[in-house]
Amino acid sequence: MKKIAALLGILTLTVSCRTTGTASSDITLKNIFKNKFYIGTAMSLPQIYGKDRKSVEIIRKQFSSIVAENCMKSMFLQPEENKFFFDDADAFVAFGEKNNMFIIGHTLIWHSQLPKWFFVDKDGKDVSPEVLKQRMKNHITTVVSRYKGRVKGWDVVNEAIMEDGSYRKSKFYEILGEDFIPLAFRYAHEADPDAELYYNDYNEWYPGKVAAVIKMVKDMKARGIRIDGVGMQAHVGLDTPSIEEYEKAISAYAQSGVKINITELDISALPSPWGTSANVSDKIAYDEKMNPYRNGLPADVQANWENRYQDFFRLFLKHKNSIRRVTLWGVTDSQSWKNDFPIKGRTDYPLLFDRRYNTKPVVGKIIRLTETK
Ligand code: XIL
Question: Is the entire prediction scored with pTM above 0.90?
Answer without folding.
Answer: yes
